[in-house]
Amino acid sequence: MSDNIRSFLAIEVDKNLLNKINTIEDDFKQIDANIKYVPSKNMHFTLKFFGNIDLEMIDKISKSIEKVIKNYEPFGLKIKGSGAFPNEKRIKVIWIGIEENPELKSLQKELDHEFNKLGFNLERNYISHLTIGRMKSGRNKNQVQNKIKKYRDYEIGDMCVRKIYLKKSTLTPNGPIYENIKEFNL
Fold this sequence. Notes:
30% of the residues lie in helices and 40% in strands. It contains four helices and nine strands; from the N terminus they run βαββαββαβαβββ.
């Protein structure tokens, strides 16, 4: 690893759910819209994006994670619904969501407060989501909006969160490459 790495903390998607998510993504691909889709291997729920950090910060972040997760047991998530950021009128990101989950909310909030002590900004409005695509232009936006509505209440399935991962993100012309730096067991 070089001295600085681009990094984030994430929950990986249960492999059993990827087929259903890919089916939704394939449905969006039927539209002639300018959308860059996220490959299955890169799908995750981000708990915190750190940006560029040095190797010393990895140890500090790891200690903060270990301090928080010792109070958590594995917990379930219901993957459900779709939406867009910043909103459905001005679509930049198309996402799959999670049903409201108190354990996840608590975990994210506690981690965020620990990371804030290390100098990272607090998340203003954390919404747990799985990005499936980024809209690059408004071409056929109304059809994209209709697909988002179609999947708004669609239930994809349940998964159990047993680990969280500190990941390295290397940006390339073909898209980001993610590597696990450390994994943490709940």
